[in-house]
Amino acid sequence: MLHFAKWKTVLIIAICLIGALFTAPNLIGRQTLDSLPDWLPKQRISLGLDLRGGSHLLLEVDMSAVLRERLNAVSDDVRARLREAGIGYAGIGVDGDAVVVRVRDAADASRIADEMRGMNAGLDVEAADGVVRGRFTAAEIANRRDQTLAQSIEVVRRRVDELGTREATIQRQGDERIIVQLPGVENPAEIKALLGTTAKMSFRLLDPTTSASEVLSGGRLPPGSEILDGTGPGGQPTKYVVQRRVLVSGERLTDSQPSFQNNEPVVSFRFDSVGGRRFGEATQQNVGRNLAIVLDEKVISAPVIREPILGGSGVISGTFTVQEASNLAVLLRAGALPAPLTVIEERTVGPDLGADAIARGEIASVLAFVLVVLFMAAYYKRLGVFADVALFANLVLLLGALSALQATLTLPGIAGIVLTLGMAVDANVLIYERIREELGNGRSPISAVEAGFKGAMTTIIDSNLTTLIAAMLLFQFGAGPVKGFAVTLSIGILTTLFTSVFVTRLLVASWLKRARPKTLAF
Amino acid sequence: MKFSLNPGRTNIDFLRYRVVALVFTAVLTIGIIALVVFRGLNFGIDFTGGVLVEVETSGPADLSAMRAALGDGAFGDVSLQNFGSENAVLIRLSQDDTAGDAQGRLVEEVRRTLAERVDPQIQIQRAEFVGPKVGGELIEGAVIAFVVAIAAMMVYVWFRFEWQFGVGAVLALFHDVIMTIGMYAITGYEFNLTSVAAVLTIIGYSLNDTVVIFDRVRENLRKYRDMTVPELLNRAVNDTLARTIMTGLTTLIALFALFFVAGEALSGFTFAMIAGVFIGTYSTIFIAVPVLVYLNLQRRQRGRVGGEDDADAAGAADA
């Protein structure tokens, strides 16, 4: 063991230097870092939101709403198709998770089922007891889910970008969730409000034949119309009777901007060519009637169409505040969410608290390091100093690995580092106590050292592997803080194994070679 | 400077008190389980769901005024406590069945109410909200992590050693888990996701300890052919005692640095870890090792196992 092949020595030193190289960016100022040549590693440890301050939101897409809507659409299609094919039926509707057709003539059941299968809507169709049921296949549901989620992420990203939040990360989690991380955002209320709005916009017409108050006091609601809440001209809540038919939908918008008209905040918008043409035609045919601008089943305003609007652009005036107008413009620009989003988890840390946590974590780490170093040196003398050098190399490698892997360092992660510092010396302690034992058995220093390293090896590997298993499982199944802790713990165990075995061994070996001590004092 | 913590070549008869130790441990374990069951844990919002807001007031916080301002029913059950300093207050609102986004808005309402009625300069330092569904999933994830971690470590020990060692290690692990959770029940520290990390780390530390001694037991089984099993086990514990003390001390040094400096946010975690070092060391010496006496530990080579009957070799896995 006294013999260390040259290439091994070089390799061990090289690994430590590479660790130092990757750690260095964390110690250098941002500006100096930017001025360095590009081939140098420049990644710093990325700090979790609990350390840098910011907001973490977990959003859930209402998949049941998506599927319900889809079922309704399919049931409309079925109706149209059966009518086209001239097949009679007693009724069509949605029941739970199925489109249900009640059959009038039992002989038609199989024809109806065939028609429904022929639609390629991803339905599993079965007929029994005079009823034909179509359920979405698992593949169709999964497909729809993926599509909805991808689309939602896209819209969320656009909305967050519109607000100018920098470095936001938006990720899919599982089947129906989206994680949004917003560094530096202290009060996520505004973003939550924006993300919580579906922003489905449509231009429709008010029903001229009746009014909401008439219907509510017992009048007949005209077929194809519905009653929607909204805001009246003065800002007070009003109800409107609105036709269901959509003249132009919000998808046709290409741009929208907040602006002013008669000193009132308004939102101006522009349609794409198809939307512009349709809007032009619709306004041409309906001069004098009320246009209802509907956002998420609420009427924002219902101006009278005074003249055809042919230029493909227009203005929404409501009783907006400046903020509301600018938010609405953002929502319309970014597009509608395919399904409502709900915030189901939120963790926000103010930047002061984050900075405080870092400062305390740093002090704790330095203090722990210094104390352990002093303790080892005082106790094991020269060999203790070797262990200390290895411990320092360990810290450097750990920080370097965290920077290179861009693993996120969290507050529990700092705890993981400190804990690693304490436990890292275990391997060296095992080796040194073994050496002491062998010396006690009357061996010469060199042979005792050799036996010490050899005897401790299986123990070191066994004991570290068990902890590594625990750490990796923590990473696999843990959430949030547990994961952050597991990352540093796992990396810490690996760097510990390397440094306490190779680095200490190299130091001890080269010292023994040079000094050839007659006795070994502990 | 010269000092020594090394007890030298000790010959303490740890195994002599194994019956006393096992009975004591069993009684303590049952007591702790009863305590946890009847008194319960102070679960954090990670698991219960709910809203947590940490605010900083401009002067020493007037808890009763804040309680009065928030206590008029609009916020459900409210609990307040100082957190770290006089100026910092932790507010917890219990989960009710309002929809997720309504819960999310509560944070802003809390701030507004307190700013209007107690302290206009109040600042929100931290706000967390966990929906009930997420809380349930976090519990599920934590339980899975626990079970899988324990199973995986047991399988590892079983493969590397013989089955008797696996049983000893697992009994020690159960002791560690129960005792650590018991520490949370006794002290009232909040039990949250970070606590789960603490418990699993304690398990890791304790098993580390156990494996070190087991390795020595295995070695001694080959080395000392004529010793009785209790003698052998005593030898192994004594041989590794210096290491146990040293590693325990350095780990404690680091943990105390964390406990006194790193702040309130990690104090529960570090406290559990500090207790865990003792719990883990105890369980290794007084549970994992003594259990081996009762499991008819076999030698690798054929030969007389002092005092034990070697006839039943069927259970020995000669790995």
TrEMBL record, chain A:
Keyword Transmembrane listed: yes
One Pfam family, short name: SecD_SecF_C
Write out the annotated subcellular location: Cell membrane
UniProt key word ATP-binding: no
Q: Which domain of life is it from?
A: Bacteria
Question: Membrane topology for this entry?
Answer: Multi-pass membrane protein
Cite the entry's keywords alphabetically. Cell membrane, Membrane, Protein transport, Translocation, Transmembrane, Transmembrane helix, Transport
Per UniProt, residues of the Protein export membrane protein SecD/SecF C-terminal domain are 342-513
UniProt domain Protein translocase subunit SecDF P1: residue ranges: 150-207
- Gene3D superfamilies attached here? 3.30.1360.200, 3.30.70.3400, Multidrug efflux transporter AcrB transmembrane domain
**According to its UniProt record, where is this protein mainly located?**
membrane
Q: Which residues form the SecDF P1 head subdomain domain?
A: 236-339
From the record, give the transmembrane residue ranges: 363-380, 385-405, 411-432, 453-479, 485-508
Per its UniProt record, what InterPro entries does this chain match? SecD (IPR005791), SecD/SecF_arch_bac (IPR022813), SecD/SecF_CS (IPR022646), SecD_1st (IPR048631), SecD_SecF_C (IPR048634), SecD_SecF_C_bact (IPR055344), SecDF_P1_head (IPR054384)
Q: What family is this?
A: Belongs to the SecD/SecF family. SecD subfamily.
Purpose of the protein: Part of the Sec protein translocase complex. Interacts with the SecYEG preprotein conducting channel. SecDF uses the proton motive force (PMF) to complete protein translocation after the ATP-dependent function of SecA.
Q: How does it assemble?
A: Forms a complex with SecF. Part of the essential Sec protein translocation apparatus which comprises SecA, SecYEG and auxiliary proteins SecDF-YajC and YidC.
Could you identify this protein by its name?
A: Protein translocase subunit SecD
What's the name of its gene?
secD
UniProtKB/TrEMBL annotation, chain B:
Q: Transmembrane: present as a keyword of the record?
A: yes
Pfam family for this entry, one: SecD_SecF_C
Q: How does this protein lie in the membrane?
A: Multi-pass membrane protein
Subcellular location(s): the record lists:
Cell membrane
Transmembrane stretches in the record are 20-41, 138-159, 166-187, 193-214, 241-263, 269-295
InterPro entries in alphabetical order: SecD/SecF_arch_bac, SecD/SecF_bac, SecD/SecF_CS, SecD_SecF_C, SecD_SecF_C_bact, SecF_bac, SSD
All copies of domain SSD, residue ranges: 143-294
Q: Which UniProt keywords apply?
A: Cell inner membrane, Cell membrane, Membrane, Protein transport, Translocation, Transmembrane, Transmembrane helix, Transport
Q: How does it assemble?
A: Forms a complex with SecD. Part of the essential Sec protein translocation apparatus which comprises SecA, SecYEG and auxiliary proteins SecDF-YajC and YidC.
Family statement drawn from the similarity comment of this UniProt entry: Belongs to the SecD/SecF family. SecF subfamily.
Q: What does this protein do?
A: Part of the Sec protein translocase complex. Interacts with the SecYEG preprotein conducting channel. SecDF uses the proton motive force (PMF) to complete protein translocation after the ATP-dependent function of SecA.
Q: Which HAMAP family match?
A: SecF_B (MF_01464_B)
What this protein is called in its record is Protein-export membrane protein SecF
Source organism (scientific name): Tistrella bauzanensis
**What high-level taxonomic lineage is stated for the organism?**
Bacteria, Pseudomonadati, Pseudomonadota, Alphaproteobacteria, Geminicoccales
Q: Which gene encodes it?
A: secF
